[in-house]
Design a protein that fits this description.
This protein is mostly helical. It has helices at 15-32, 34-50, 52-61, 63-74, 77-95, 98-119, 127-134, 137-156. 0% of the residues are buried.
């Protein structure tokens, strides 16, 4: 019959042996990818020289306070309004065809240039000049569009 076990041997490595094993694995890893490790060291040096490493360390130390502040700011009405407005604006932008937007922007640029040139003129537009301008088909079309647009806005304000 076998003898009972009276001693239990601890086969786990000691802390010093574990440290030596970890160091050996680290040396082996560095030796296998020396170029990558050198790049990493250069990157850390650049971060340190620029002061960004200190900033990152300070940020990580204060992460709880930063998170609380950020969350408090996100909950404020102006921020939520801005987010909601951005979401609605993005919805509008997804519904408009890019060709229409490009055409509109090009026309706006041309119109702005022409308006700037015309604004430099010292000629005074009187009442009769305004009446004559209203007969211009382009001006009339723009006025109809503007009035229709303003009417739609007014109806939505009811």
């Amino acid at each position: 019959m076998a003898e009972p076990i009276s001693k239990i041997r601890d086969t786990r490595p000691t802390e010093k042996e574990q440290d030596e094993q970890n160091l050996a694995e680290l040396k082996e890893g560095i030796a296998k990818d020396a170029a990558g490790f050198k790049e990493l060291l250069e990157f850390v040096k650049l971060l340190h020289d620029s002061g960004a490493l200190e900033t990152l360390n300070s940020t990580m130390k204060a992460r709880d306070e930063i998170a609380k502040t950020a969350l408090n700011e996100w909950r404020k009405e102006p921020t939520t309004n801005a987010i909601n407005n951005l979401m609605l604006s993005s919805k509008l932008l997804t519904e408009i065809k890019p060709e229409q937007t490009e055409e509109l922007i090009n026309h706006l640029k041309e119109t702005a240039k022409k308006a700037e040139e015309d604004a430099k003129s010292e000629e005074i537009i009187g009442f009769f000049g305004l009446m004559k301008a209203l007969k211009d088909p382009d001006i009339n079309r723009a006025l109809r569009y503007s009035l229709s647009f303003l009417k739609g806005i007014g109806e939505s304000l009811k």
